[in-house]
Write a structure and sequence with these properties.
The chain is an all-alpha fold. It is built from two helices and no strands. Helix 1 packs antiparallel against helix 2. The radius of gyration is 17 Å and the shape is rod-shaped. This is Secreted protein.
């Protein structure tokens, strides 16, 4: 798994914890953490799919 995807997943986990803590304390600041969670999860999926497509392209080029 690409390093950037792992970083994005770590941010997802931390943003989830921060959102839960914020909402548990009654703060609406948790909405910002939920938005950060959405962005970081999209970044993680992008880099995972990019790595998968790059591997498929390399295998396809090597076969020909």
């Amino acid at each position: 798994m690409p390093r950037l995807a792992l970083y994005a997943i770590a941010v997802c986990v931390l943003a989830t914890v921060a959102a839960v803590v914020s909402f548990a304390q009654g703060s609406w600041l948790g909405i910002v953490w939920v938005l950060l969670l959405g962005v970081s999860s999209n970044i993680a999926w992008y880099y995972v799919r990019k790595a998968k497509n790059d591997r498929a392209a390399e295998q396809g080029a090597g076969v020909s």
